[in-house]
Amino acid sequence: MTAAGAKTEKEPVVIVVDDDPSFRMFLSRLVQTIGLKSILFTSAEEFLAARQPDGPACLVLDVQMPGLSGLDLQRQLAERGRPLPIVFTTGHGDIPMTVEAMKAGAIGFLSKPFRNQDMIDAIKEGIARDRESRKKFDELIELQARYESLTAREREVFALVTRGSLNKQIALELGTSERTVKAHRAQVVQKMEAESVADLVRMADKLGISNA
Question: What percentage of the chain reaches a pLDDT higher than 90?
Fold first, then answer.
């Protein structure tokens, strides 16, 4: 059950991209044992053409496939801005390939045959990571919406407050009265839903405007 007004999370899913049909079915049955749904693709191209999942996901990806390789797909997803957690599988991986995948953020690199529990543990970690990533992404979108609700002058006050300027200094820099600055500051706090200046500083940092 979720609290009133809370956003309901979409169902987690495991995405399997592998050109071996028997292996795809094996993984589908394996993820069912831990109560998760799977979506199966025969190639990286097929996966890229499909709609991406709305909920937390983990991608189980074969390294070497006809057409785009698993590493190629990993790079393409990274270029899109929000890469999925990836567990690589391979029947003939090598150390340089493993190093490249892990440096690019892969959760694991499992050689076939692997222990079922190792795959289950990696998938659970991937789902947890993506859940947290999506939560942070949603929070940032909400924070950006609050910031965009500020007027141009309120944004100037926001930037100066988070830089550590006092009301008197802000009034001098903006060529206005201290009383007006206090009014703008109160609006900033209300619209940004901040409880303190420290809150505003953290928000500015997340928005990438702390040095504005």
Answer: 66
